[in-house]
Amino acid sequence: MGSLASAGGARSRRSFNGCYAPLDAVESPRPAEMKAQQQVAYESEESVRWTVDNVLANTANLTALDIDMIVRDSLAGNPLAKKAWPLYGMQEDVSESARKISTSKVSIGVRVVVGNEDVVEPMDRVQSKVVSFLRENVRGFYGRCEGREAPSAA
C-alpha cells in the first residue's frame, strides 16, 4: 500500500482535481521485518534517506535536491499519521470503497504511481493486483517520486 493511485479529470457537476488511494485495495500482509522498518522509516533524516535509497526509489535518478525535498517533506508529516499508516492503514481492506468509485457515474482517469525500485509495492505486484482492479482507468505507471524519478513520464 505504499504506492498511490491518482484519479483526476472527472467530468460531473462536482469535479475532482485528483485524489490518491492506497494500493492495493485489499489487505496485504507484510513480513514482520518489513513492518518494523516501516514503523521507523520516517522518524529521522537518516531513516528517511535509508528508506528512499533502499526501499522507495532509484536514487541514481534523483538529484541531491530531490532527496533533500523528500526528506524535508517526510519529516514534516504528522507523527501520528506516520505511525498509523504502517500499523493500520496498510492493513485496511478498502476494496468495497474502490468498487463504488470505479462503478460510479463520475468519469475518473487513473494514474498509478509506483517507485521503479520500490520493494514494498514492486511494479509487477502493482500491475497484477491493482491494474486488474482498475484496468479500464489506468493511464500509465510512473516513479513514486513522480516528476523526479521519471521526469519524462510526468
TrEMBL record:
Lineage: Eukaryota, Fungi, Dikarya, Ascomycota, Pezizomycotina
GO molecular function per UniProt: hydrolase activity
Protein name per Swiss-Prot or TrEMBL: Alpha/Beta hydrolase protein
Keyword field: Hydrolase
Organism, as annotated: Penicillium cinerascens
